[in-house]
Amino acid sequence: MPKKEQFIQSEVREDKIHDRFVIMAPGRSKRPKDVGEEEKFSKKQIEAEKKACVFCPGNQKKVPGLYFAGDKNNWQVKVVKNIFPAVTPENKKVYGYQEVVIETPEHYKETGDLPLDHWIAIMESYINRTSELSKDKKIQYILIFKNKGGKAGASLHHAHSQIFAAGFTPPHIINKLTKAQEYRIEHGNCYYCDLIKKEEKGSRFIMADDKAVAFTPYASIYQYEAWIIPRNHLDNITVLDRQEITSMAKMMKYIVTKLNKLEISYNMYLHQSITDKDEHFYIRICPRRSTWAGVEMGSRIIINTVLPEEAAKFYRE
Question: Which residue ranges does the record assign to the Galactose-1-phosphate uridyl transferase N-terminal domain (predicted)?
């Protein structure tokens, strides 16, 4: 007789610092699905897009650079103003800046395919622009993010990320910082410092070195979600040393490469509250393999059909 398939019961997991409930329901991953995956584009379509791509070097005569890695005429990474910003320094009602980090001059290059030194150059562009934007005393919050794939909200194929600097701090960020402070008062330690010690010894561990640790969080709201956290209690990306930059870039490249092989869309982001000097900086990678439906939108309770422990095994393989 065929072996009877084991049924794994659902369970609720709570992340008190980030104020969320997640239902882990691995059995639902086998439910029928008739929605198509990522849209595929032919080489002819992408070639036509390349001719009009505003991120390709030959099409950027009217887009001045704010930062270059490499020579201005032969750059490796280039940062420009977002020409369709939601916030601007001229708007008193919604003050801020939006910038685009063009991660490579090559239209077909996936970020995961870039060598480690190129990843380091991208990280250094984030550091430079975060430092510059932080000089504006009106800026309270900076978010650096990357959308890869249609399900993650990407509108262009050319590899890029974005920097969003605002004159306000989102309420959920304030709530998270408040809860982290409450944890520090109650336990006498940083929540994220304690989290590193716990996760690097457990089943959600992905990889680590003497500078950083990568793992899948206990209450992951995304399938195959991963966090990368520096071991040192560092407030933001601008205070990373060269070894820490290299370590985190290496882990980002590893995780993103795994996702690219499966053609999974993802969001990757890191953020900073300018007014809080005691945050523990980390990078969050959020694959967008599933679509949130009525339960998630109505109750804000997320259903995740892939256990973080299983996701960590996928990354470790």
Answer: 6-170
